[in-house]
Design goal:
Two copies of one chain form a homodimer. Chain A has 219 residues and is mostly helical. Chain A is 61% helix and 0% strand. Chain A is built from ten helices and no strands. Chain A is elongated. The structure holds a DNA duplex (30 and 30 nucleotides).
DNA sequence: AGCACAATTCAACGCATGATGAATAACGTC
DNA sequence: GACGTTATTCATCATGCGTTGAATTGTGCT
């Protein structure tokens, strides 16, 4: 994969001839590494090597490692614009529309790598200031509040998010087969009803546990 | 939190008097750190400091950092025994029984920390040999194969796992409120039906998209 | 009392990392 | 063709890490 072709050839320092998009190659290498190994396990030296370039050049283009991370994180979609559109047409079918939006974003390679980078790096560390937490809260949760009954919006949407983040984990992080290769339409058929139920099913009662369930494992 | 009391007091090396369970305190500190920051971001020096102890002592009790990690990972339940019990009584209500088992394990503090450590550390890195992948496959997926139709077992169970891992992420890693504090019974009422549907709902047809859904966002 | 053993610390090594600053070669422009 | 600018490398620093080995002191056995 190492991108550069005639890169680390001759002796001496100074500018090297060819490569017209070195900056781009560095960014691509960084994205791959952040997406695959997270922030902590990514080393600037490895990124540089992968781009066929001296580590100092990485610092020349992007500043610190944090800056590089932020640069690699640019996500080509804005949830704050797209998510409300899903709910504009009302709750009916919103589950399916939301899931289709979710899948279209995650199946897009340009969006997938930065998202993976964000998720992998965020789940590694604890703390309220985690980027992912803020991202979910302000990019997805906030813009939806208005579309649902005020006092139920949060927990309904978080159930939705729980199912979607579960897909992220199993399908895109762990790549469990056959789930990871399941066609989009099949996935929609399976999980859209789940999301729809979380969105508009009546609040569950503190139901009498009469139905069929034994006391499972408790303790 | 730093566990040791009269620990780093006087001068000189040699054995210190009191603390009867230094080893235990080290292990506890290690668990907290691994669970909170994952493997990579956990430093032996920090663990030692947190236990009020010299880093070399960590190596004295547990060997390398890997060994310490494995020691911190001891999970007091064996899914290979418990999971099949869920399916012994048949598929009816298995969703709820499985979810209750899942919750009872994750709500147990003795199990939660090692599990968090495993999850946090595994999601940080790519690769087939990831402990978590292996764990899920062999601890959960394998023992269940026999309880479902052979050709559907894998994708049905992986859908189940997707919802459960989504709960892990939102409830235990990100601690999204109010989901994180939702009472067990409410959670069961909301998501047990989801699991049950993944387990025994008829295979979705390549249905005509006539119902209510527009073409969402594509591309 | 003496002695083996376990617990604990100290000091240090070797290594990889992020970062910096100066040196050099190619490029674009007049 | 001279010149400022940009791209690139080299050499190096300080830091923090995992790990090791020896030194020291307390504990328990006989």
């Amino acid at each position: 994969m190492t991108a550069a072709d005639g890169a680390p050839a001759g002796r001496g320092r100074g500018r090297r001839p060819g490569g017209p998009d070195t900056r781009g190659q560095i960014l691509a290498a960084a994205r791959h590494s952040f997406a695959g190994k997270g922030f902590g396990a990514t080393t600037i030296r490895a990124v540089a090597a992968d781009a066929g370039v001296d580590p100092a050049l990485v610092h020349h283009y992007f500043g610190s490692k944090d800056d590089l991370f932020l640069a690699a994180l640019e996500i080509p979609v804005d949830p704050r614009r797209l998510v409300p559109q899903v709910f504009e047409a009302g709750l009916d079918g919103a589950g399916e529309r939301l899931l289709r939006l979710f899948l279209s974003v995650w199946e897009d390679p340009h969006a997938r790598l930065p998202l993976l980078a964000l998720v992998r790096s965020s789940l590694g560390r604890e703390g309220d200031e985690s980027l992912l937490r803020q991202g979910i809260l302000r990019m997805i949760l906030e813009p939806i509040r208005s579309a649902l009954p005020t006092d139920e919006a949060d927990h309904r949407m978080q159930l939705v998010i729980s199912q979607m983040s579960g897909l992220v984990v199993t399908r895109y992080l762990l790549v469990l087969e056959p789930l990871a290769s399941m066609p989009r339409e099949d996935l929609v058929a399976w999980v859209a009803p789940t999301l729809q139920r979380y969105l508009d099913a009546p609040l569950p009662r503190e139901r009498g546990v009469a139905s069929s369930a034994g006391p499972g494992a408790s303790g």
